[in-house]
Specification:
- The radius of gyration is 17 Å and the shape is globular.
- Strands 3-2-1-4-5-7-6 form a 7-stranded mixed β-sheet.
- The chain has helices at about 15-20, 20-25, 30-35, 35-45, 50-60, 75-85, 100-110, 145-160, 180-190, 195-200; strands at about 65-70, 90-95, 115-120, 130-135, 160-170, 215-220, 225-230.
- By secondary structure, the protein is of the alpha/beta class.
- It contains 10 helices and 7 strands.
- Bound molecules: S-adenosylmethionine (SAM).
- S-adenosylmethionine binds near residues 75, 94, 96 and 138.
Length: about 230
């Protein structure tokens, strides 16, 4: 059965979510408006399925053991992960907003293999080395640098030895990409922290014990998006 593992009132909503992303996640009508796969697909220039499937393929066809998805995602990504779970596997989903966890629960239905954890990704309550794989899907670009660093450190802390981290997010496209200037305008206006991912590779915010050569990066859609995988 899905359950929330901490009381909803115990955690403050981070200021960047309140100030920058209230319209997308925090406002009571946000889920009603944005929980539409066609809309998420439009925001990603028609690439939702491609990016979702790239993340799924990186995670693996059959997910045994314990998987952690850090932050809820609009659309059917988590339902597709659910379909890949082995009968005795576990998927935990963390989010800071109870409304997003409730939406995930509604999408996933009753499933004893799935847990919903109300927590801040920068300060996770689970013990170290608890998961075989961790997924961060379009989360890091929404965060100020200190929260991004802390989230990556926590994701790394969650991994068992040999565990895998999968990240999908924005990336600086080639200047020849027709979306270079329009996307820059969109991101500067609506997603101010996202430009950090255009300026710097994600591995520069990873904990120091992860050597950059352990990180495999592939870009998609003319370089506008990136998929990172690393095994600890
Ligand atoms: C994964 S990101 C963006 C995903 C993508 N844009 C989509 O289509 O949904 C959005 C989620 O991250 C959550 N989130 C943001 N900052 C967080 C934090 N510090 N800890 C936990 N969850 C966080 C938000 O509440 C929201 O549900």
């Amino acid at each position: 059965m899905l359950k929330q593992e901490m009381p909803a009132a115990a955690l403050a909503v981070p200021s960047y979510l309140e100030e920058t992303y209230w319209w997308a996640y925090v406002h009571p009508k946000a889920v009603q408006i944005f929980e539409r796969q066609w809309l998420v697909n439009l925001i990603l220039w028609g690439n939702f399925s491609r990016l979702r499937d790239a993340a799924l393929d990186a995670l693996g066809n059959e997910l045994t053991g314990r998987t952690l998805q850090v932050a809820c995602v609009y659309g059917d990504l988590t339902a597709k992960i659910q379909q890949r779970l082995a009968p005795d596997a576990r998927l935990d989903i963390v989010d800071i907003l109870p409304v997003q966890l409730a939406n995930a629960q509604r999408k996933l239905g009753k499933d004893a293999r799935i847990g919903l954890i109300h927590a801040n990704s920068a300060d996770l309550p689970m013990p170290s080395a608890s998961y075989d794989r961790v997924l961060l899907f379009f989360l890091l670009h929404e965060m100020p640098e200190d929260v991004r660093r802390a989230t990556l450190a926590q994701a790394r802390r969650m991994l068992k030895p040999g565990g895998q981290l999968v990240i999908v997010d924005y990336h600086r496209p080639s200047p020849w990409n027709p979306l270079y200037w329009p996307m820059q305008a969109v991101l500067r206006t609506l997603e101010p922290f996202a430009m950090d991912l255009w300026r710097q590779p994600i591995h520069t915010w990873l904990p120091a014990d992860i050597a950059p050569e352990k990180v495999h990066q592939r870009t998609l859609f003319g370089g506008l998006y990136q998929l990172l995988t690393l095994t600890v």
